[in-house]
Write a structure and sequence with these properties.
The complex is a heterodimer of chains A (239) and B (101).
Chain A: H1 10-17, H2 22-27, H3 51-59, H4 63-85, H5 88-105, H6 115-134, H7 170-178, H8 182-193, H9 198-205, H10 209-238
Helix pairs in contact in A: 3-4, 4-5, 4-6, 4-8, 5-6, 7-10, 8-10, 9-10
Chain B: E1 13-14, E2 20-21, H1 23-28, H2 30-36, H3 40-48, H4 50-67, H5 77-89
Antiparallel strand pairs in B: 1-2
Classes of the chains: A mainly alpha (239), B mainly alpha (101).
Amino acid sequence: MAIRKTAEPQETVDTLRTSAPAQQLVDAPESVPARPYLNTPKKVLPSGISEAEAIERAKDGDGGCFEALYSLHKRRVYSLCLRMTGNTAEAEDLTQEAFLQLYRKIATFRGESAFSTWLHRLAVNVVLMHLRKKGLPEVSLQETLEPTEEDGPKKDIGSQDQVLAGSIDRVNLERAIESLPPGYRIIFVLHDIEGYEHNEIAEMMGCSIGNSKSQLHKARMKLRDLLKVTRVERAASKR
Amino acid sequence: METGQGTAAAHVYSSGRGKQMNCAEFQRDLPLIIDAGGTEQQEEHLRNCEVCRGLVSDLRYIAEQAKLLIPMLEPSPRVWEGIEEKLKREGLVKHVQARRS
């Protein structure tokens, strides 16, 4: 096996985060997505109007269009909040807060990035602000790339288990992510699920790029441990 | 040639150029290897070490599976009801549609 860089979702995420005017999102199909849910070829709302038009009307205080925007984006925002907090009630409150902030700030949206990208960043900031207020650990500023024994998963020297490939289903992965320590979970969700780059995460969280990379590695190692335990338990229950 | 099985000592491989890398050294650099790719020496270790090959495979598999997680989770109707109520109370909306079931 050659050591190659892990495939990154650069194409889609970068496309979504660059300066495509909002109108283009309505008219032009986006590039081949790394994440299928990011591919919304034509954002036309059930009412028949385009997303861009709904945004303009919502800027003028049209509640109906705002509700249509909510319907279009609620799953992605809620999923982000739930995965970052691991708590349904908190995720609901934060989704509500994110959309309230959206309504108050939508007039400042100039279409310099895709609306979904802009909203998503707003939602991430709402969640991070909430976690800071709660005093939950995000990323230790003292972290280095060297994993520590006490908070990281153990190394794998000399042990040989069956590889995970083919054995993970969505439910088990979601559960394992939910049980990660908050600091690991946040970085994993932002990088591996939501597609943010380490420099973006570092900026949002006020840590170094090295810290972000270190936490991500620990998160993946911890997930591997959790998923292997799940697999063993599942096998035992079948006996 | 080592088989990659048995004790940790068995997981030390010669690069053929007098340099050796063991699993601890390889795994210490793993975050950088996954992110930026490995050196020739690390590549050789990976080719010869089943343990580290399994580890790298698992970490990449986890990252790939995570990308496929779809945001399919639906928030409770309470969320929109709360938003609507607050917007009305603050007088921010011009016209809110009647609640749809």
